[in-house]
């Protein structure tokens, strides 16, 4: 039951990160939540038989401290520095918070765990909303089906520049040997219409379909 609650919370946080095309997505957050909950549960309940042995004294809080330290290394892997900007801090903090939520569920602190999940989820949503990026920008997700042999990235970057659209993230999914899916996360100024940008992309014969 505790692990199930932890997985539920990890799924909610991870889904938003996956939707935002982040390095640590749904699977990472689910695994972190479930594993931290399991380790904390083992620490709390797994040594009752050993404690009955005279002269043995265990400290369950050590496992909690070790989980926090270990997840710190995992979170560091999601932080990148490009040119003069740093990205991935929100995702790293989300992974760290997910571990804490898993530990909260393991100790039976369900209200605190669910409340923290909601807070983290809302914070991540706000970070990609129009409110956060300014009322003059829109964040848009676009999915492209592309021929696998095509060199399409430079064309997309050039097209974005021509339409004053910023490409925030892109992620590639290999569907099969002939076709792959390219997911774009774009920042579009309010005075720019998306339709001319889409039409410019359609002119490339290597792009099979466009959704978004």
UniProtKB/TrEMBL annotation:
InterPro entries: MgtC/SapB/SrpB/YhiD_fam (IPR003416), MgtC_SapB_SrpB_YhiD_N (IPR049177). The keyword Membrane applies. GO terms for cellular component: plasma membrane. The chain crosses the membrane at residues 30-51, 63-81, 93-126. It is found in: Cell membrane. Residues 4-126 form the MgtC/SapB/SrpB/YhiD N-terminal domain. Its main location: membrane. It is a multi-pass membrane protein. Keywords: Cell membrane, Membrane, Transmembrane, Transmembrane helix. The keyword Calcium does not apply. Belongs to the MgtC/SapB family. This is MgtC/SapB family protein. It comes from Treponema phagedenis.
């Amino acid at each position: 039951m505790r692990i199930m609650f932890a997985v539920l919370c990890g799924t909610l946080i991870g889904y938003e990160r996956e939707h935002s095309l982040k390095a640590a997505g749904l699977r990472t957050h689910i695994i972190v939540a479930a594993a931290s909950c399991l380790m904390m549960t083992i620490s709390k309940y797994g040594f009752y038989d050993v404690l009955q042995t005279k002269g043995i004294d265990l400290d369950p809080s050590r496992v909690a401290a070790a989980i926090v330290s270990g997840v710190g290394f995992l979170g560091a892997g999601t932080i990148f520095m490009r040119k003069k900007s740093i990205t991935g801090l929100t995702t790293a903090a989300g992974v760290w918070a997910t571990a804490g939520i898993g530990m909260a569920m393991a100790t039976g602190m369900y209200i605190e765990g669910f409340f923290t999940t909601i807070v983290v989820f809302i914070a991540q949503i706000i970070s990609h909303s129009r409110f956060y990026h300014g009322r003059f920008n829109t964040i848009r997700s676009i999915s492209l089906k592309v021929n696998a042999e095509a060199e399409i990235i430079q064309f997309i970057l050039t097209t974005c520049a021509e339409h004053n659209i910023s490409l925030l993230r892109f992620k590639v999914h290999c569907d099969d040997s002939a076709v792959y899916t390219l997911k774009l996360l774009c920042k579009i100024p309010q005075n720019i219409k998306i339709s001319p940008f889409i039409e410019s992309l359609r002119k490339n014969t290597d792009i099979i379909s466009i959704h978004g």
